[in-house]
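#struct-pred

JT: dropping the chains for the assembly here, can someone run the whole complex?
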Amino acid sequence: MGLYNAKKLVAIIGAVLLVFVTSACGSSEQSAGSGQTLKVIYSKNGTNDPVGKWLKKVEQQFEEQHANVDVNVVPVKGAEGTFTSKKALMLQSEETTPDVITEDTYLINSDAAAGYLAPIEDRVKKWDGWDHFIKKVKQGVTASDGKIYGVPYSTDTRGLWYDVNLFEKAGLPVPWHPKNWQDVLNAAQKIKQSFPDVIPFWMNSGKATGEATTMQTFEMLLYGTNNTLYDEESGKWIVKSPGFLDSLKFIDTIYEKGLGPKLSQVLTGQAGTVEHHLMRKEKIAIALDGNWVPAFWRENGPNPWPEAMETYHFAAMPTQHGQGEGHTSMSGGWALSIPAKSDQKDLAWEFIKLATNKENMMFADISMGNLPARKDVEEAPEYEKALGRAYKKAAQFLKFTHYRPTFEGYTSVSSAIQAAVEAVATDSLEPKAAMNQYAKDVKRAVGADNVVTK
Amino acid sequence: MPWNPFVTKNSDSFRAILFLLPSWILLLLFIAGPILMTFYFSFTNMSLTGSAAQNIEFIGFRNFVKMFSDPTFQTSVMNTILFLIFSAIIGQQILGFLIAFLMKERAVHFRRIIGVLVLAGWITPEIIVAFIWFAFLSNEGTLNYVLGWVGIAPVAWLFKFPMVSVVVANIWHGTAFSMLVYQAALDDVPKDVEEAAKIDGANGWQRLWRIILPMIRGSVMTNMVLITLQTLGVFTLIYALTGGGPGTQSETLPIFMYDQAFINYQLGYGTAISLVLLVIGIIASLLYVKFLKVEI
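RK: done, full complex below.
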């Protein structure tokens, strides 16, 4: 046999072996997976991974109950935006879709419209566990088509964190119950007079803090006026309204009178960290922010501060003139949903039911530091004991909270709000001009037939 | 003479085609394909979520009309051009040349030390460059700390001078590339030509302007095109350093594109913006070729 032929022979043998080995691999995989696999993906950001711990725990329970099912819990690391885009790409095809996903409730409308999510209306109706969920929180998982697209597992509220020590020294009432916006401004003014080196009122005010500026600052103001962002009846975005203008005027007043933070502190992506550090040093008297703020100071948190809860108390944000229910809040939260293209929807539903039962929800909510979506968890003594009074207080805000109008185009509307808030805070536009700019931006983003003026 | 398949001309070109075919197919599949797709998607309302994710519609020039009427787009085009002129053309190009020119014919040790210092910027990954400059320029950063020694009040650099900050950081990062290109080019300038000019009485400036620069024109062009394309694509540095802000003050086209595509989920609109970026790159390259009168 010549050299050439020898080479040829080796090549042929090699090829045959390769085919054999790969096919063997394939078949062995198949035989091992005679049962079913349930793929669960969730958003993981930061090193502390409470959602992962909870889902892993459920995975173990589920596999004990279903001997032939292999649950595969996969974290998607990175910022929330990364998860959103990765998830969207995965959900587009039957090949890549998971069977259970964590879903930020503000995306439920658009993901449902994109055909990514399966409605679970019929399933929750037949489930006795559903009655335990808080009514307001259920609103967050109901899309504009009236169908339910997920089981909520956490929620949150927003309000005013105020420094008790500074308040007492400045002669302000503790506990503090501001009745309207003017009360808030008066308190800030008094702080400014008493403590020149303290920031009287902190709020996220720029594009760099993204959705936090929209939700924690602007919508906390707007939903305390007589106007909202979206007109449910006509299905149009409200681009100009007296409430919108007044909200911007409130922001303008804060910065005009020197009651807010320095712009270089608040107009960066690191604003949240700056805020927590300044609060730790008691350099902020009032902060408009969410229920999770103390998580920064908890025992294993980034900056432990055992006395945090004695220093900062949580007050409800008043409505503009104290009208309506007197207070306002905004809520979001996360849910477990079933992708439309999953071929194991029944099994996925079993998993979700197990994950959101009372015991597992208790575990999840305590480790996440979020507000519970279940009433029986909220009322359980273990929960109250674990989290202290600030969380109990924050949970009470759910009575008068609002959910964002997450209809199509919300993300563009939100960007336009951030631009308007930043323009007012930096004094580059007067409130009225900023509102006009907002109207223009939204019109361009969602189309002129989808906007209305009030 | 017996027929030998290894020498005939026809068979040669046939074999050449045969061997090149796989790479042509790969090029078409992975380079031309995506470009054509981008072109198509920029005329659609494609979105990452919402009803447009399910039903992609052809919407003609609507993305472009929207873009040209958007003040943020205009700002980002201006910022991109400023970033290009100051960080690439003036900064990297001239500074890189100067360093290479001054290092010419210096002691080897001197060349090495300077070379390593400049190269440090080049080998540092963009995201780390951003962190270094953030640590240097932030409110409680090194620069303010040092200024404090001489009694100067801290300045919020990234907030007050966002564009200057990203330009300086990018020059720091990219100058070494130009320096390397010019070092190689200057080494190729024949010594005798320079010496002859010297004997004829040409001073240093004349030698640089009349002899060296015309001789390395090709390298200038190549470098210009390369750093332009590179600078047009800078995203990580700006995103991590200023996020395009405050407001839209340091927003360049790549940042604007990212925001539209992945923050506002409008993929179609994002691709339309990327197309504009591509066109700017092509125009800039053609301009260089024309002005530097180099044949390609």
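JT: nice. Residues 135 and 240 of chain B are 12 Å apart (CA to CA). Chain B has 15 helices and no strands.
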